[in-house]
Amino acid sequence: MNPLERLRAWLLVNRHWEQVVFKNIVWATLAEAVVRGLKLAILPLIARVFGPAEFGKFAFAYSFASVFNIVFDAGLATTTTRELAMTKKNEALLPDILLIKLGLGVLGIAAIVLGMLLVTRDPVIRAMIMILGVAFFVLELVNLSFAVFRAQQRMEYEFLVRTAQAVFLVAAVALAAWKAPSVLNVSYAYLASGLLTLALVAAVTRGKVVRIGSRVRVDAWRRILGIAVPLALASGATTVYMNIDSILLGSLGKITDTGWYNLASRIVGMLLVPTGLLSLVIFPAFASTTSDVGEMFRKRWDRWSIGMIALGAYLACVVFATADPLVRLIFGPAFAPSSAALRILAIAVVMIFVYTPSFQAMIVFDRQRTLFWSLLSGAVVNVALNVAWIPPYGLYGAAWATVVTHGVLLCELPVLAHRYTPVRPMSGTVVAGLAGAAVAATLAYTAMSVTRTNLWLAVPLGSLVFTASLVGLDRARAVPITLRMLTRW
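^ that's the sequence the OP posted. Answer follows.
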């Protein structure tokens, strides 16, 4: 087999567990790199063209419409991935899943119409909420195809569709900003890109992924919803605490604060890409091996957990050291208040990276109901703190409410995963990795702080120090282990 054929086999053929994970990581990473690279232009474009106030209106409408993804998704994407990953026979459920999805779309749009009448009287914001709501439902239909691709562990197909979607969106937003610059037209750009992507999915799959059930099959619906509803409730709790801050800021008339805060939270969203990227790759791989939870399974889980912790610590120290010059350089001086909020939210970033494996364990091992109650407690804390802290402290109150919320989840999820699943979130190996990442991040932050005004020097220097520290600590930790082994021998 020549090198090209070998590369093709590794990237396009599913052969064994390690190779499939590697293949999926490659395609998922390429998708994120291309998609995020293209979409990276959208945020500074909208921010610089429209300024904090107009950007705040768009952010308010976007956050409010996003809440209704609870209804549009209803846990069906994750349910589809899990059920199809377990056995190919479950593909017979796809028409039923799509019929449920369409019914939820009608329900969600009706809820959006009612909700927007209550939260704002601004006709432009109402129009944006409606347009974005329809766009999000269309994108949820596209996400259903991603669920199928992930279950089949064919991330290369998702790469192609996501890349096309990003190209459509960037082109549409750029055209709107150039020809008819208004935040309302940006909303239309989101809808247009979603419709084009859905048409592409239907054409590429020849309707296989978009077959709609002709009748309600009670047994199938009961089975699907029995899995999906707890996931939907858990996802709903997450969606609420991710968007309630921007919604409250906007509804209280703090539109400029909404723009500043939403910019910071969007940057955090980009920092959290690796959690979603690694989870969507690892989830089907672990879900397909839950029948054999042995030493190898736990070692793989520990390696994933340690990698997540190290990456989260690194990203947080980069934000702490470079937030001010980074925000001013990319978004302009008008968004300077966003940098302080960004630093606060970086604390939450570390927490999310630490508890994400525990979150995924609850889904992999069918503990969705327990996960829901945990996330609901976080949502309750978040809403209460936002209501209390946003009126006096604005965007900074919202940022600290987010940190406390994720602190609650960090205390809950590892304990629940340890109790209700076979994994051990805080094993000795993971705790050692956590301590090593903390030391490496401290040293990297110190190095970057010295040269923070020069981003081109600070980030590479910090990355080098962080990597060297991790490697050095890992080798130092291995020395006593080796000595003990030799002594026993």
